[in-house]
Write a structure and sequence with these properties.
Layout lengths: L2 H10 L11 H15 L1 H4 L38 H10 L15 H11 L19 H5 L6 H13 L3 H4 L11 E2 L5 E2 L15 H10 L15 H13 L6 H6 L1 H9 L1
Antiparallel strand pairs: 1-2
Helix pairs in contact: 2-5, 4-5, 7-10, 9-10
Bound molecules: heme C (HEC) (2 copies).
The site of one heme C has 24 residues, from helix 8, helix 9 and helix 10.
């Protein structure tokens, strides 16, 4: 079954596209209406990941009551910012059933549903402290251009940080190291050669994932162990393993590169 189609079918049942909210309370009320139609079949009425179609999905939909999220700009163990949640809602999660809602819900509806899913967990009550943010927009704004030297250096960082223990020497995963997530379910380390990154395939997205780690999975945070330069070197090295977009392509097509970076 095409799961993107599930998302679209759900959208057809969704709230009127002109729905808007003004105050915080209105936002949560509108968010609940959007959630019931668009998210509940997977994430469940109580937000615990047990919606009516959840059992057919692998990976399982996120259980929002735990307050644990993979894609964040915040340190490991912290809740994500509203922008982080909006990014996931807007783009979806490539390669699995979580749909992109960018063209299916109005901006106000996406803001509202973010406000609503935060009500499922007490962890959001205190909000995000500025010191919890380990990847800032400023850090991502001006990545150094990719060069052959950066790629070579990235290969060394990959070896030194022992990424291969889980992701394999060739970036396809290490079959000798079976992994489980925090809930005891089997999970495979990302295969870099697919090029389809769950968190997005632009360099800032890749940077964010290994800087913050992916909570609830074995993927650790490298927030304290890599400096800025090493991180970009690693980003370009990981991306260069992709069968889809090579760093060489970007070097040959700088306008495409610039366009992708500014999105
Ligand atoms: C067809 C099923 C499906 C629908 C519909 C769906 N999701 Fe998801 N969602 C998933 C799955 C599966 C995951 C977990 C993916 C993973 O762990 O790799 C997920 C994960 C998430 C995450 C967690 C990202 C993270 O950082 O860990 C958020 C936030 C989210 N969904 C929000 C929503 C919202 C809001 C809606 C409704 C507008 C929605 N989802 C509708 C399947 C769905
Ligand atoms: C202990 C095992 C482990 C180690 C060590 C590890 N990873 Fe991962 N990594 C994982 C797992 C498991 C996933 C998949 C998580 C998922 O699918 O939700 C992952 C996912 C990722 C992703 C996200 C891909 C996406 O879908 O967006 C990136 C990027 C990544 N790893 C880079 C690295 C780099 C670079 C290193 C070394 C500095 C590294 N990892 C070390 C286990 C590991």
């Amino acid at each position: 079954m095409c799961l993107r189609a599930v998302g679209f079918a759900l959208f057809l049942l969704a709230v009127p596209p002109d729905a808007e909210a003004t105050g915080d309370e209105d936002l949560v009320v509108l968010g609940e209406r959007v959630y019931r139609k668009a998210c509940e079949p997977c994430h469940g009425r109580q937000g615990d990941g047990t919606g009516s179609i959840a059992r057919w999905l692998d990976p399982l939909p996120r259980d929002f009551t735990l307050g644990t999220f993979k894609f964040r700009s915040t340190m490991s163990g912290s809740v994500p910012t509203d922008e982080d949640l909006r990014r996931t809602v807007d783009r979806g999660i490539p390669g699995n059933s979580m749909p992109s809602w960018q063209h299916l819900l109005a901006v106000g509806e996406r803001d509202a549903v973010v406000a609503y899913i935060k009500t499922f967990s007490d962890w959001f009550e205190d909000g995000v402290y500025p010191e919890d943010i380990v990847v800032t927009d400023a850090q991502l704004a001006t990545p150094p251009p990719p060069t052959e030297e950066m790629l070579a250096a990235g290969r060394e960082v990959y070896a030194r940080m022992e990424c291969a223990k889980c992701h394999g020497e060739d970036g396809r995963g290490n079959p000798d190291n079976p992994l489980e997530d925090d809930y005891g379910r089997r999970i495979v380390a990302f295969d870099f050669t697919t090029g389809v990154y769950k968190a997005g395939s632009d360099p800032p997205d890749v940077y964010r994932s290994f800087a913050t780690g992916l909570d609830s999975t074995p993927m650790p945070s490298y927030a304290d162990s890599l400096d800025e330069t090493e991180r970009w070197q690693l980003v370009y090295y990981c991306l260069s393993l992709s069968r889809r977009t090579t760093v060489r392509d970007w070097l040959l097509h700088p306008p495409l590169w610039n366009h992708r970076m500014q999105r």
